[in-house]
């Protein structure tokens, strides 16, 4: 593949659903770019070799009046930031047409490739080899793996974001222990001569596993700042503002949770504050999830009631959830 001297080498953003995707923050960030901008598929990694279909089930969907099976796979998309689209319009990302990256580069002014799919179930070293060979074919200049993890951090402060890099001098993460594909691929890419890093965003544990658009937005803002892109994040920022408001509503209805968040704020603001008891954190998370389930059940019941032309006495649907 040849590229113009006026076009910088593509940036490859990768997000893996699963272990390193707390609250779907990483995969939602990737999906937002695919929903917001015109994109097309430029490559796939075959699923048969790397997925256990009993663990990662294929999906049956109806599209265009026809039933289709969507297999778990890693798909690579070339994204054109000169061509925004309305979120939710058009075909799903998995049904985008194929095209060559050569065809897309001229209009991108700095191409971005998005890789999206579930974390593979097996043969990770072979998977990394296949992934990086494809990245080499496209002359990728940098690889960034988007990732998220649950953490005891308050939603009222900036969500912590750590950079895990294949270059020790550029690594500001402190994790030691079990790792996921984001870490494995970051190190493998650096060994293959591709500048690589993983951006890890922390998601508040006490809000459960509902979506966290604030974290998705922060990930994309960091990518834009580090690589000089200008993403249109207006729609994602609006969702993040609603998420923030919903979290405040939850705290007003649960004093023990509000007290816990105040302790998290104190720890966040001061290194000398006492450690938060993880048993208390677990109990509060369970209480929060129970509250959210009860609210969702109540809301579904109220939707079935006949419309009397009067406002509901319950909270708005937007008061809870991400």
Protein model, in words:
The structure is a single chain. The protein folds into two domains: 11-233, PAC-like subunit (Rossmann fold, 3-Layer(aba) Sandwich); 241-319, no CATH class. The chain has eight helices and nine strands. Mean pLDDT is 80; it is low at 1-7, 272-280 and 307-322. Strand 3 and strand 4 (66-70) form a beta hairpin. The protein has 322 residues and is of the alpha/beta class. The strands form two sheets. It has a seven-stranded mixed β-sheet, sandwiched between helices.
Q: What key attributes describe this structure?
A:
322 residues; alpha/beta; Rossmann fold; 2 domains; seven-stranded mixed β-sheet; two-stranded antiparallel sheet; 8 helices; 9 strands; 37% helix; 21% strand; disordered N terminus; disordered C terminus
């Amino acid at each position: 593949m040849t590229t113009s001297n006026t076009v910088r080498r593509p940036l490859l953003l990768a997000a893996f659903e699963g272990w390193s995707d707390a609250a779907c923050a990483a995969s939602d960030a990737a999906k937002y770019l695919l929903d917001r901008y015109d994109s097309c598929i430029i490559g796939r990694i075959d699923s048969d070799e790397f997925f256990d279909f009993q663990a990662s089930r294929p999906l049956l969907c109806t599209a265009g009046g026809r039933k289709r099976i969507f297999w778990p796979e890693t798909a690579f998309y070339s994204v054109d930031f000169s061509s925004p689209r309305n979120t939710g319009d058009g075909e799903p990302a998995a049904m985008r047409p194929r095209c060559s990256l050569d065809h897309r580069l001229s209009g991108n002014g700095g191409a971005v490739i998005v890789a999206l799919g579930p974390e593979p179930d097996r043969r990770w070293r072979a998977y990394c080899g296949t992934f990086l060979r494809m990245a080499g074919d496209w002359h990728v200049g940098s690889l960034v793996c988007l990732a998220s993890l649950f953490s005891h951090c308050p939603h009222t402060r900036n969500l912590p974001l750590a950079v895990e890099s294949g270059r020790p001098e550029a690594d500001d993460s402190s994790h030691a222990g079990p790792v996921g594909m984001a870490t494995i691929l970051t190190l493998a890419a650096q060994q293959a001569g591709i500048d690589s890093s993983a951006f890890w965003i922390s998601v508040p544990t006490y809000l459960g596993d509902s979506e966290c658009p604030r974290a998705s937005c922060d990930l994309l803002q960091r990518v834009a700042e580090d690589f000089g892109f200008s993403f249109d994040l207006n729609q994602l920022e609006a969702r993040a503002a609603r998420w923030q408001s919903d979290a405040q509503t939850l705290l007003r209805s649960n004093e023990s949770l509000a007290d816990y968040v105040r302790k998290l704020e104190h720890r966040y603001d001061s290194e000398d504050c006492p450690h938060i008891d993880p048993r208390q954190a677990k109990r509060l998370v369970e209480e929060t999830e129970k509250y959210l389930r009860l609210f969702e059940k109540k809301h579904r019941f109220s939707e079935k009631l006949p419309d009397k032309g009067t406002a509901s006495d319950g909270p708005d649907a937007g008061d809870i959830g991400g």
